[in-house]
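Table S2 (text version). Query chain:
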Amino acid sequence: METIVLIAVIILAIGIGMRWIHLLNAQHDARIAAYHFSDPLPRPPGLPDDTGRRAHHTDADR
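Corresponding structure-token output:
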């Protein structure tokens, strides 16, 4: 009988923990959605269109 109660308590604790983490993630997502980042900085003159690292990789490099 004690084993069944212990297993039920563990399952309940896991369920409460999952729900708590879900609520915290929802709050975090709401905070991120509410924060509006500024516009990106303008590209300095003389730079090519795409200076990212991916622009320099080709399929042969992989």
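Notes on Table S2: The CA atoms of residues 24 and 30 lie 10 Å apart. The two ends are 59 Å apart (CA to CA).
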